[in-house]
Design a protein that fits this description.
Blueprint (H helix, E strand, L loop, with lengths): L5 E4 L4 H10 L6 E4 L16 H16 L3 E10 L6 E2 L12 H19 L6 E12 L2 E13 L15 E3 L11 H7 L1 H21 L2
Parallel strand pairs: 1-2, 1-3
Antiparallel strand pairs: 3-4, 3-5, 5-6, 6-7
């Protein structure tokens, strides 16, 4: 398999598109997204795992466009909540929930858990992203993890999703307080994309050495 010249990002989420385009800007790949294909349908993310959802979206987009396609699914896994919201992160507060509603539900659940325990509980958490690549020569999966903790209140105006309440390990800023470039270097999605780039680099070296 060679590095593709054109690739479709299987999402209409403009925040994700911007992040992925920023990280992949130096690959030389022409990047399109689902926004460029009016005929694409929304894919129901009903898988039990991040991998299943990412693969489902990538496969559908590849089959519909005929172009190598990249899809991700991301979960926030909170230790005190037994790994929740996990695969349900995007709809933690219900179907079609907003970012604000999901964050409010998360903070409420952690506060309620503390009240039940009558003590401060761990707020350790991690973001995990799985990226699936589907193309004419098969499928590949890439994973990125960022450890951190959940803050007690929202901080920062940048980012999206749970970014205002997630502070990565070793930092004093939430994702929403960081410049986009800094977040992309250490984030779960950024790390998964770096794995993808390393894969493409290895393919390029193999092709050159033939």
């Amino acid at each position: 398999m060679q590095k593709p010249e054109v690739m479709v990002l299987a999402t209409r989420n403009t925040h994700k598109i911007r992040e992925m385009q920023d990280v992949l800007a130096d690959t030389g790949i022409q990047l399109k997204s689902s926004l460029d294909f009016a005929e694409l349908q929304d894919v129901v993310e009903d898988g039990d795992t991040l991998q299943a959802n990412a693969l489902k979206k990538a496969r559908y987009t590849f089959q519909a466009t005929g172009m190598p396609s990249l899809a991700d699914d991301t979960g926030l896994e909170v230790e005190a909540l037994g790994g929740a919201p996990g695969v349900y992160s995007a709809r933690y507060a219900g179907e079609n929930a907003t970012y604000v509603q999901n964050v409010e539900r998360l903070l409420y659940d952690l506060d309620r858990h503390e009240r039940r325990q009558f003590q401060t509980v761990s707020r350790r958490a991690r973001f995990r992203t799985v990226i699936a690549l589907a193309g004419p020569q098969g499928e590949q999966l890439f994973e990125g993890i960022c450890e951190g903790q959940i803050l007690r209140e929202e901080r920062g105006e940048g980012g999206f999703g749970y970014d205002p309440v997630f502070m990565p390990l070793g930092y004093r800023q939430s994702f929403a307080e960081m410049p986009a470039a800094q977040k992309n270097e250490i984030s779960h999605r950024g790390r998964a994309l770096q794995e993808l780039k390393a894969y493409f680099d290895a393919l390029h070296r193999m092709h050159k050495n033939r």
